[in-house]
Amino acid sequence: MSVRTIIEKRSYEKNCCDFAGIGQILNISRHTVDIHRRNMLAKSRLCNTAELIAFSNENRLL
């Protein structure tokens, strides 16, 4: 894996973790993003965002 690929992957992961950034990309309110994040946590029965991201990575959802 090249250094560029690693940097691009890390940048992508960082942006996925930054829910405010997702709101800007999708042109929606941070509040809307927070509501969707809470809904995903509730439906997946996970406790926090870190667990949600880990689950998503393990199941190749990201």
TrEMBL record:
GO BP of this protein: regulation of DNA-templated transcription
Domain HTH luxR-type: 22-54
Gene3D superfamilies in UniProt: Winged helix-like DNA-binding domain superfamily/Winged helix DNA-binding domain
Molecular functions per Gene Ontology: DNA binding
InterPro entries: Sig_transdc_resp-reg_C-effctor (IPR016032), Tscrpt_reg_LuxR_C (IPR000792), WH-like_DNA-bd_sf (IPR036388)
Protein known as: HTH luxR-type domain-containing protein
